[in-house]
Amino acid sequence: MSTTLSGVQARTAVAARQLVKVYGKGETAVRALDGVSVDFAAGQFTAIMGPSGSGKSTLMHCLAGLDTVDAGSVHIGQVELTSQSDKGLTKLRRDRIGFIFQSFNLLPTLTAEQNILLGLQLAGRRPDPEWLDTVVSVTGLAQRLGHKPNELSGGQQQRVACARALVAKPDVVFADEPTGNLDSRSGAEVLGFLRTSVRELGQTVIMVTHDPVAASYADRVVLLADGRLAGEIHQPTADSVLAAMKNLGA
Ligand SMILES: Nc1ncnc2c1ncn2[C@@H]1O[C@H](COP(=O)(O)OP(=O)(O)OP(=O)(O)O)[C@@H](O)[C@H]1O
Ligand SMILES: [Mg+2]
Asked: Which residues of 194-205 are buried (b: 16+ CB within 10 A; e: fewer)?
């Protein structure tokens, strides 16, 4: 089941139209997303920023099919996510979307390599050996494949999570505060790697962050305030992002 969205360019990886998400009912209802329309270009690294409570995580969850919307639509490529059944959504998430979370979410009893390949295995798919080599070498994990998560640094664990997200060649990788649990050096490593995956592998990455330095690795920053779009910055620097955030009262 897929519909074509008019006005979306072929190179748009993810398109949201008039997204509304309301939590709760009556007087205590919160409009976490209040009519958000935004496109994310394929092969670009976009950061989503905004004050606490502005709707960043809600937007990411709705874009990635981890949460339902009350109105509006999300397209991943030409496929409409918002009209999928639960089964269709599970398949779409498995085949076309990669996730990186703040807490690395690796299985402790598996080696780095087994963790990287787990998703493909569960989907009954074989890894493309050449692509696996590329991903392992770009993430700098070649010497670490036999190690369990507790034998790896936080930065290395997050690079395993990045490799796991990339190995299935997803249309888009969503990252929610991927450096939130890392020291600044490991954080810079992971951000540098995400940057490389966009530049050299053509990956599309959408990252939620509250850190202007992290956002400066992106090609574009989308700003949210009170569940609405509040501007965007192209070729951001930490300073330009910080200034924009101050303007939003963050
Ligand atoms: N499950 C929920 N039930 C009720 N309200 C919620 C729920 N999840 C989020 N909200 C509310 O929706 C709004 C947006 O929340 P969201 O988590 O998307 O913000 P955020 O920008 O990610 O914030 P932070 O930077 O603190 O992570 C907030 O007012 C929040 O309290
Ligand atoms: Mg959040």
From this structure: bbebbeeeebbb
